[in-house]
From TrEMBL:
Segments forming domain VOC: 22-134
Signal peptide: 1-20
Name of the molecule in the record: VOC domain-containing protein
PROSITE patterns, alphabetized: VOC
UniProt-listed Gene3D superfamilies: 2,3-Dihydroxybiphenyl 1,2-Dioxygenase, domain 1
Keywords attached to this entry: Signal
Length: 135
């Protein structure tokens, strides 16, 4: 039995461990009809301190969390993707107030006591977004 344990440990040490996270980074693509208008709106929504990349014309990426990017890409005949991107905030009321002061309506906050408070809304291009706050 001791041999099996030593052998198992040696095998584990010589191979890479499986991560609980299947990917190292996530980029969520969001189609927009005007990259310039979308960049301005998302910069207001996310905040001026947000890291931005412009890898090539017609694409802007915002780092919204560690290893997580929102990639805006310009398309003709833009249609909402059908997906919703939800952003965790520390305090729903504060997050909504801050965005309201910028002219961004983040919808009504819906509270499920002890579980989550969330809101749903859309960017100017019809893409579904949301904010949520955990207890």
């Amino acid at each position: 039995m001791r041999w099996l344990t030593k052998t198992s440990m040696a095998l584990l040490a010589s191979t890479s461990f499986a991560s609980a996270e299947p990917f190292g980074e996530v980029t969520v693509g969001v189609p927009v009809s005007s990259i310039a208008e979308a960049e301005t709106w998302y910069l207001n929504f996310l905040g001026a301190e947000t890291e931005i990349m412009r890898p090539f014309p017609g694409v802007v990426e915002f780092k919204v969390a560690p290893d997580t990017w929102v990639q805006l890409f310009e398309v003709e005949n833009q249609q909402p993707s059908g997906a919703i991107i939800r952003f965790l905030v520390e305090d729903m009321a504060d997050a909504q107030r801050e965005r309201a002061e910028l002219g961004i309506n983040t919808g009504d906050a819906i509270d499920i006591p002890g579980v989550v408070t969330y809101s749903e809304f859309a960017d100017p291009f019809g893409n579904a977004l949301g904010l949520y706050d955990l207890p």
